[in-house]
Amino acid sequence: MKKVLSVLVLMLIFSISNAGNQGILKEGSDPDSLKAIEKVYLQTDRDIYYPGEDVWFKAYLVESTERLLTDHSYNLHVELISPGAKVIDSRMVKLGGGLGHGDFSLPSDLPSGRYLLRAYTNLMRNFGDQLFFNKTLTVINPAGKDIAIHDSADYVKNYLDVSFFPEGGSLVDDVQSVIAFKAIDAAGTSCDVSGEIFSSEGAKITESNSIHRGLGSFSMTPAPGSGYYALVRDSGGNSAKIAIPRSFARGVVLNIAEIRHNELVAVVRTNRETYSLIDGQDMHLTVSARSTVFKTISFRMSSLNSYLAVRTDDLPDGIAMITLSGPGNLPLCERLVFISNSKVTGIKITTDRRGYNQRDSVSLKIGLSDSSEVKRTAFLSLSACERNFAADPSAFPSTISSWFLLESDVRGPVEDPACYFDASDKDRLKKLDLLLMTQGWRDFTWKYDKQEYAPEHGFNISGRVRKKFADVPVRDAVVNIGLFNGLKPWIVQVPTDSSGRFSWNGIDIMGNANLIASATGLKDQLQGWLLLDSFRYVPANVQLTPFTKRLVSRKKPEVIHDQVLPESQYLNQNFRTFVQYAEIKQSIQNKYRLTDTIRPGEVTITAKKDDSPESALTRAEMNIGTIFIDKTAVITPELEKYGSLEQLMTVKYNLFSLGGHLMSGQGSPLFLFDGMPVDYQQISALPVTLIERVDIVMNEIYGERGKYGVISITSRNDWGTKNIPAFHSAKVTFTGYSEPRIFYSPKHYATLESDYKPDLRTTLLWEPDITLVNKDDLELKFFNADRPSTVRITAEGITSDGIPVTGTAEYQVK
Predict the structure, then answer these.
(1) Distance of CA 424 to CAs 128, 254, 401, 402, 464, Å?
(2) Which of 280, 557, 669, 672 is a plausible cystine mate for 156, CB 3.0–4.6 Å?
(3) Whole-number Å distance between alpha carbons of 286 and 330
């Protein structure tokens, strides 16, 4: 009874002192509940653009536990979001083995500003926008009335804020604890500070300075009944007095004393009053990473301090969570650590020269800089562009390594994330540990029993069939569906279930297509009211304006308006240069009609024909490939009463008497639907209301395939614009995957002067599909443009065993 009472008391104590801590998935959880958690990263060719230019991107989708490329989802939604938090353009990217690529064409009148590039799968939407990928792109429009990039905030003078984070969760009386802190200024960005810690009685306890971007830590042992505060100052003379979180009379403290290669040392500390309650009770130290429990160490405290050595060589690289649980598996403390077991693997990029002239040929080699003997394959994308149009070269921008290993697992923005992966900084892991102690990250709550958004494997068409005059389902009907997009048609027959519903899943189609559907019953009679579900994807909400102005308020603040945010300093320092170059580039492009892209089979449409009823003959002649048509049936309102094509051709006309010898036993004719060969059985249920005309050609213009004649069906173009009461049928435009374009890089060999065109490309090379096998190097060639500059080459990607890799190189163009 005393033991049970002690457990209940402990649960009450720890539920108060650790309020807000979340539990994690316990070892032995139902494997079916551990669904795949996806993360995505996008590399773009650069970061700064002008209106009318193209944004090129490569997508990498991984399953978060091991960071292996995954085909769990096939559809990736990529959106371009304005500074006003509106989705202004979107792409549906087809993923194959976790890889995909695409592009955006920026409108020529796009206003200047910072835009958000966002990417996510449907599955990610189950967890809000926490897993979404976001990247800032800057657009500079020199022709706008207001061309400045307004990244400013209302500052509060003399404002300084410091947040304190006791390691593991809470301070406990008479227990030594480490407290991390993070200091920010009025703009909400980090600032370096120094401070002194005092007791409420005025006694100085200790002092501490930040060591990196406002991050620092100190150690103290709180006394019972005493409060503490910090006097903090920054380099600008701003100061603040801020209270330290209070301590609790009872509790347990978790301290990670040391992180060594392949091992960390955890120390569990408590005071005498708490120890008397947990003496003889089982405690558990659980190590998890990205929702998966890797190990649990059970122990009992034999003194006020317990030391535990935890092996980490079997953990994946990245953030891991150490959770201390007490009796009843009640989570008591949490601590994040960064695991770095893999030997350094990166991308090495070398060019054949350090300096070039304009229009010179550049030869580069790319390979893996891998110190291990493990054979691996790497999937990469590479961009070569003028350095000024990439991120601030003095900063450490987000990379595929920082995103997958750090940013996507940490709550809140991370300044200069790549600096934590800079191997030249011997203190980077210490700085990274402080970041993890202060960012307040917690694992997600995985509620798969309430999963609303399922992973997408292509597209689906669904709906229901009901009776025309009563909302009663039509059971055991057949829905005939056809997709026609100028290639091989997709035609299926899908039955309805007992509720009248039907679904066709796993559709893999590129671009737009005409969707034609009809519902038939017994004897293939058209019947019922066909209702299609909306298959237009509704994007995720944009929760907040990406670049909204920030106002930090206090009592009676002295506000200084329109101060430039630190992230915009590089752009503003070079803004005039960007504008001048844009004006020159635009004038030359207008003169020569230059572009840096081509579309496969691209054609120029000079005029659009009026699709009047008379033009149906022209379309029919184009579909068949001849103007010599032997017989024609133009569909009139009188003929629409026959319902389906089958009824029209067999009852009204006797299909094959129209064609003479077509059904004389010699063979079957070739059927065309809008110029595409189809099986007659696939289109026999096609509603007559969707047909413009039926034409028969007797000559053998299709050779062997059409030696028994050709029957061509031309669909109506005005379906949907006229009030055609065909309840049993539907014709709509279906949108599939966005078709990626081809990046065009000219070859500047010797040409005639009359053929000369200026080359003003900012992105010189974009190669989204590079595969490196083992340690073999790959050679790429391209040409410089007509502008002296520093060119930055950036490659990013991921290996077959889940290691994100990056590499950069630069050269000069005179």
Answers:
(1) 37, 31, 16, 16, 62
(2) 557
(3) 12
Question: 639 — phi, psi (to 5°)?
Answer: -80, -15
The gap from C-alpha 761 to its chain's centroid, in whole angstroms, comes to 27
d(CA 798, CA 404): 10
Q: Which of 292, 402, 319 is nearest to 65 (CA)?
A: 292
Residue type, 162: V
- What is the Cα–Cα distance from 265 to 275, expressed in whole angstroms? 21
CA distance 326 to 338: 24
379-398 burial code (b ≥16 CB/10 A, e <16) = bbbbbbbbbbbbbbeeebbb
Query: How many angstroms separate the CA atoms of 575 and 572, rounded?
Result: 5
Extended strands (E) in 565-717: 597-598, 631-634, 670-673, 676-678, 691-697, 710-715
Could you tell me which residues are beta bridge partners of residue 152?
A: 564
Q: Say how many C-beta atoms besides its own lie within 10 A of residue 309's C-beta.
A: 11
Q: What are phi and psi of 787, to 5 degrees?
A: -150, 125
The band of 656, judged by pLDDT with boundaries at 50, 70 and 90, is: very low
Neighbours of 315 (CB within 10 A): 21
d(CA 192, CA 183): 7
Please work out, in degrees rounded to the nearest 5, the angle formed at the alpha carbon of residue 400 by the alpha carbons of 797 and 71: 60
**pLDDT tens-digit series, residues 711-726:** 888 887 765 555 455 6
Under a CB-based contact definition with an 8 Å cutoff, are residues 375 and 774 in contact? yes
Measured distance CA(729)–CA(126) in Å, rounded:
34
- Give strand pairing partners of 306: 268
**For the chain, how many residues are written?**
814
- 160, 156, 53, 151: which is closest to 110 by C-alpha? 53
**Rounded distance between C-alpha atoms, residue 190 and residue 210, angstroms:** 10
Per-residue pLDDT of 689-699, as tens digits, reads: 778 888 888 76
Q: How far apart are CA 317 and CA 331, in angstroms?
A: 24
pLDDT the model gives residue 21: 33
Give the whole-angstrom CA distance, residue 480 versus residue 487: 19
DSSP character string of 553-585: --SS--EEEEEEPGGGHHHHHTHHHHHHHHHHH
783 strand-pairing partners: 361
